[in-house]
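Recap quiz, item 2
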Amino acid sequence: MVGIISDEELARQLQQGNEIALETIIARYHSKIFSYIYRMNKNYHSANDVTQEVFIKVCRNIKGYNAEYLFKTWLYTIASNTCKDYLKSAYVQKTIPGFAVADNIRDYEDTPEEFLQKQDEREAIIEVLNQLGDIHREVIVLRFYEDLKLEEIALILNIPVGTVKSRLSYGLHTLKRLLKERGGELG
Amino acid sequence: MDKYQEILGEIDKDENDKEMVAVLNKLSNYTVPEPTVAMTSSLLNNLKTVLRENDTSSNEAPFIKPIDRVAIQKTVDAGSLLSIFRLVKPQMNILTWRFIVTTSLIIFAGIFLTSGDTSLIFLTNGAPILGLLTLFYEHRAQLYGTNEMEASCPYTPAQLAGARIIVTLGYTVIVCLIATGMIALSFSDILINEKILLWNTILAWLAPMVFFLGISLAVSLRLGIGYGCGSAFLIWVMQIVFEQNDFGNRFIQAGLLREMPMVFLVIGLLLIAMHIRYLRNEIDYSQNG
C-alpha cells in the first residue's frame, strides 16, 4: 500500500526545490485557500490574485518553514495575514465600500426555479455573514468551511483556543439572531 | 452531520438544537466557485518560476567584497598599542550591567558584613575569583564557537587578548579599590599606622589576582579559557586549604610569605606577558594574497 506523503514531507521536498512537491501542494490546497480567501473578501478576481500572492509567499519563504510544525497551519497563517493586508490596502478601502455582491454560481442540473431559490438562500447567508465582525466571520469560515480544528485556528490566528471557541459561539449565535430577524424560520 | 455535532459540542449546544442545526444548514448553502483549471495551471507556472529563482539565488556563490588587506594592515599596525585601546571600548560592552552589578554587590556585601582583618582576608581571597569570573565572562564567546568570526576581524588575537586583559584588570581593580576604600573607612589604622600601609593592603589582593589571571591565561593557550579559569580556580581552592592547615599556618607565621605578594605579582605579570607574546608570535590568521 502506498502511503500518502504528509504535507510536512512535501514542504521539506519543496525546500529542496522539488517541483512535483509543489504540484502536489497546489493540488491539495489551491482550492481550499481560494475558497477561504473568496469567503473573506467576496470577489472572485481579487480572491484569485490574493491566492496567487499567498502561494508566491509560500515559495519564497519555504526555506524558513520549520517542518516540526504543521504545514497546514503555516499556510493558513500566511493566507490569513495576506488576506487581512489586502482588505486593509488602500485599493480595497477606496474601491470596494463594504463587500461586493458575490458572484453567481450556477449548477446546470438545477431548474431555473431551483437556481433562483438557491441563489436567494445563498445571498441571505452572505448578507448575514457580512453583518458579522471580521474576527467572528473568520473563525466561522475557518471552522465550518475549512474544517480546521479549534487548536489549528488558534495557531493560525495566534489567539488562545478559548478565544476561538468564544468567537465561534458568539458568531453562530449572532447568525441565528440575524437570520431570525430576517423573518426566516429556523428549526 | 458529524461535523455539526462536533461544532455544536464546541459551543456547548445540544446536537438536537434545531435552530442551531438550521443555522449550520444555511451556512452550508454558501458554496463558492472553484478555481478553474486554467487558473491552477497559471498559478503553477508562476510558482515554478519563483521556485527556480529561489534555487538560482541560493546556488550562486555569495559575492564577497575583496578585502583590502593593505588598508587593514595599516589600520591595525598604526600604533599597535593604540589599536588595543581602540578595542577596549567594544570589549567593555561584553561586560553586561547584570554581571557588573551582581559581582560588585557580592564584593561590597562581603566587605560590609565582615570587619577589620576578616574584611582584608575576604578581599584577598575574593579578588582572584572576581578576576577569574570577569576573565571568563570576557571570553565567553569562545563557548559559542565564534573563534573563526573573531579571527576574521582585522585585529590580531594578541590585540584582542590585550584589550580583554585591560578590561578584566581594569574592572577588577576598580571594584577592589572601592572595597579597599570601604575597609580603610572602617579600619582607619591602614591610613594612620605606618605598620600597615595602604600599598600593602592593595598588594595583598592585587598580587594573587594577577597571579591567578596569569595562570588561567597560560593554561588557556593549550586548553581553552574554560579549563584555564577552572585550573586557576582549583589552585585557588588548594591555596585556601593550605592556609587552613597547620603547616600552612606555620609557613605564614614564619614570615616566609612576607615577601611573596611581590613575587606572585611578578609571576602573574610574566604569565600574562607570555600569553600575549605567544598569541603575537604563534597565531597568525592573516592570509596574504
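Residues 2-50 of chain B form one domain.
The interface with chain A takes residues 3, 7, 10-12, 18-24, 26-35, 39-40, 43-44, 46-48, 50-52, 54-55, 58 of chain B (CB under 8 Å).
End of item.
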